[in-house]
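Replying to the earlier thread about multi-chain prediction with a worked example.

Input:
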Amino acid sequence: MLKQIDEKIDVLVDFSKNKVRPLYFRWGNKRYWVKQINLIHISKEMGRKFYHFSVSDSVNYFKLIFDAEDMVWRLSEVYSE
Amino acid sequence: MPKIVLHVDMNSYFASVEQQANPFLRGKPVGVCAYLSKNGCIIAASIEAKKIGIKTGTLVYEARKICPSIILVENNPDKYRSTSEKIFSIFQDYSDRVEVYSIDEAFIDLDGFRYDFKKAEKLAIEIKQRIKEEVGEWLKCSIGISQTRFLAKLAGELKKPDGLTILSASASSSTKASDDKKATADKPEEILFLDEVLKNLKLTDICGINHRLEARLNFLGIYTPLELKKYPVGNLMSKLGKYGYYLWSQLHGIEIEKVRTQAETLPKSIGHSYCLPKKTKDLVFLRKVLMKLCEKTGRRLRAENLEASGVMAAIGYLRSGGMHMSRKLPETIFASQQIFYHADKILFSRPLLAPVSFLAVSVSSLKSASNQASFFSQKKEKLKSQSAALDKINNKYGEYTMVPGLMWECNDYAKDRIGFRKSVSLKEKE
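Result:
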């Protein structure tokens, strides 16, 4: 089931080999390791650029959004069965 | 060396992108909808949904009746555009002549690169692989390879999903042109020949033939594409005019519309339409929505640096019927309020016959914007600087930061929805 969330989160990110890889993030009191980056897409709103990372661990799908202007990460969606 | 064109068509595109983003949707029937309300319409069905009879155009409640467990998601235009840009940028690594035909379709012209069918096949396999590795492993495409743009598209339609088809413009394996024979040893076994393909297709399988044209062709005694190909071209032209020659030459593998890059392609029209959430005769509300459609149209028109000298507007009435009318203008227009002025005159200068359920507006006869100052009036220059200033503000601070007063409290209506036509721009590669 898909849940819309809109919360600021802390993300550990790997910037290497010309790629950006979220490694894990904290949401609530839990740490979620990113096992797979499924899709990365870009959107623009109010002149700001947002990077959307659709990622998953073994039981959930998450959408993480990076606001390139404020340099803030947000958790936008969670899907689990 | 024959000319080679590749046609790449992404399969069940929007639904596959959703399945790519969320792995829990993979292998399941998924429908992407413009709206999730029961009368909303599925604009893309996943391969799994298509197998059980749910296709593009199926209404939400019909889809739920066919498969109660179908997963319906609202469309996300940014996601599809951004993903298409990544895919099309892969194509630009192979040719400088890439034509974006729609958001999920493109032509790659390999003319001048010394490709034969075998090399083109290898390239197609490489492109499929790169899409999976660089964009997403769930994304599949059908690739058609042939000597003309039209035949490449026809080839691409023959095998779906995940197809790769090579179609030779030669009539059949035994009647190949002599200059084609040299390449025969190199040709892969799966190569199809035109006449053999055409005899097994219906007329409506050919791009550019709809049911009405099919009926006209039937009247001439033409029932298959192969019969159309063999029909005397003079007779065809006397019945269908120039379009008769267009169809005949396309089926003979004669290239009459080359692959057009972005710089060579002007859109024929730009427009927006909207199914109203409340069916009404309230002119205040209808004008509000119409203004928003005109503003969206005007913004795109000016972003492309174009002007229009034709306007079309349409309304659909609740239950059935409606009207549409277009108007040729003596002067070119570009401002949203100019588009609104003409659309409003077309639609609302006579009484409405029933509650309105649908509104559409588009501009046509497009040409590059001219900076020629008008000899008789300063009005155009003023309007131009006004539109440019508003566009600058909206580009910087976000869409609809400054809008015409008529659009007051109109945020929830006619939101961004994805179109299938050329809504993706290619970026120049370094």
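The two ends of chain B are 28 Å apart (CA to CA).

Feel free to reuse this layout for your own posts.
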